[in-house]
Amino acid sequence: MSVIDTSGPCDVAIIGGGAAGVLAAIGVLRGAQQPLRVLILEPSLPLARGVAYATPYPEHLLNVPAGKMGGFPDKVEDFLEYLLDVQAFPGVDRDTLATQFVPRRCFADYLRHRLQQAVEVSPAQLEIRAERVQALDRDAVGFQLTLASGQQLLARRVVLASGNALRPLPARGAGSLPDGKRVEAWDFDAVHGIAGNADVAIVGSGLSMADTVVSLVATGHRGRIHVLSRHALLPLPHAKGPAADYDPEPLLRMDLRQRLHALRQHAVQAAERGIPWQNVMERIRPMGQALWQTLSFDDQRRFLRHVVRYWDVHRHRIAASVHAQLMQLQQQGQLQLHRGRLETAFADGACVQLTAFDKRRHPFQLDVQHVINATGVEMRAQAMRNALLQQLLGSGMARPGPHGMGIDSAADGSLIDADGVVEPRVQVLGSLRIGSLWESLAIPELRVQAAQAATALLG
Ligand SMILES: Cc1cc2nc3c(=O)[nH]c(=O)nc-3n(C[C@H](O)[C@H](O)[C@H](O)COP(=O)(O)OP(=O)(O)OC[C@H]3O[C@@H](n4cnc5c(N)ncnc54)[C@H](O)[C@@H]3O)c2cc1C
């Protein structure tokens, strides 16, 4: 039996026990050749839920088919294997299950199951502490972590996997709305608790909006559902059909304008052969990071300013069943889509009064019982409401990533500080790397990053 000294510094401290942190822990536990002390710090237990997989509600589905959600780059069908092993969907055969969008909560169960299996055979020891990390500083042995409880810990190496930060509601007055009038879309229980006859306004029209609408439908909501966003584009559905087989490599040598033109051409040609445009997008899915990194800085900026909304609805698609629900609600008039920029949100008796401006700067007003913030993931480092990130930026241990998005990291995931010095003992995972990689949110990217981080940390 291995004897590990738990009084001294831990070997690897993982900050954040969402999907990315847990995948990194599994990688370290599996790769360890000798006794090591691995610590996960996560205030919201049980592990592996983070934002995405914390929902207990069956209507919240994964937006990637089960056959592609495996947590390991060398075993992309591992999630599917797990579902079959535990007989999560008795009577559904393997091929059918591989293409299905199963409830998101299954994924957290899967990750915890694999973590437990890794613990059982590893010479390393895993500790889990329900704590938030407030500060990270360099120290003689490596790093000193200050916890929200005030306690301090030492670690030789660190994984930063603090994940997704919610964007605040972009409206004057929103901060002073009474509790319950302003609801966060990621607060799944609060959305479920909304009275069935209430009129609501959902701000944002992406995946979190879709989550909110399916929850309202599941609770039998009868009130009006206003959806307000600057572009009023709804997420598009996944589609079945033959795979696209064009060569995507030349796209990497084109500028932004040429790429968009070429992609449209591929979609037109594919449609002529009965191939849905969705599969044209699927063809470039594995190249998301390369496509971003081969754009010039100016083209990246143009993309963020002019293209990103259109990109998002084509790239971040939803299950066809969810899309059909949205369309039906819109046709019935229960869901009303508004294009506009939200300006103010003030309480007015039992109502919330929202003021927005349309494209021509004409004001319009929505009176509802609840406003739901579905504006999604905060990408700007300086705006992320996470004390640890603000401390890292303030102390110079980290600097904002390209275009101010996320924090800067090297190609191997090492943190880059304010002077540009690479710190390989701190590995950064997930949405924090968005400025450098763009595609850095979903499991297909996280599993690669987590495996690389584990290798770097063990090395
Ligand atoms: C609503 C939603 C649905 C999604 N659906 C899918 C999907 O179907 N398929 C897919 O591939 N991707 C999906 N994603 C993308 C998703 O971001 C990733 O799959 C994954 O959940 C991200 O995991 P993470 O660990 O990086 O971040 P998170 O899930 O955000 O977890 C980060 C964790 O870090 C903790 N933390 C933060 N700060 C600190 C701190 N200072 N100290 C200690 N702990 C801290 C938080 O409590 C949290 O638990 C979805 C995202 C969202 C928001």
From TrEMBL:
Annotated Gene3D superfamilies: FAD/NAD(P)-binding domain
Domain of life from the UniProt record: Bacteria
Domain FAD-dependent urate hydroxylase HpyO/Asp monooxygenase CreE-like FAD/NAD(P)-binding, residue spans: 13-164
Listed name of the protein: Pyridine nucleotide-disulfide oxidoreductase
